[in-house]
Design brief:
mainly alpha, 6 helices, 67% helix
């Protein structure tokens, strides 16, 4: 799973397009993560989407509330991530802690 963090860093030098980063992060996450962390989760957002949002957050060098605001404002990003609704910023915080704890994500 260390390749996830490496690819996240590598994306930063290859493109300046947030939409391209979102698409690449979704492809990486789909190959490495299950759809949901638990069968009892709410199923509002997949782990793939949350991972891609977290990768975008690092790429754009913003905080949780900042990336949520960007997703709310830019339909192209929502479309690239296949988001039906924008998650709450706390969802990202919990997802990042969960992915870090499981060793599936390294700080980019």
């Amino acid at each position: 799973m260390n390749t996830i963090a490496w690819r996240c860093i590598a994306m930063r030098t290859m493109t300046k397009s947030p939409v391209a980063v979102a698409r690449q992060a979704m492809r990486i996450a789909k190959a490495a993560l299950p759809d949901y962390s638990s069968v009892y989760s709410r199923h509002d957002s997949t782990q793939h989407q949350l991972f891609a949002i977290l990768a975008l957050r690092q790429f754009l060098k913003t905080d949780y509330r900042g990336i949520i605001q960007m997703l709310a404002n830019f339909s192209d990003l929502r479309k690239a991530l296949d988001l039906k609704k924008v998650p709450h910023y706390s969802t990202l915080c919990y997802a990042e802690k969960r992915l870090l704890k499981k060793g599936l994500l390294k700080a980019c």
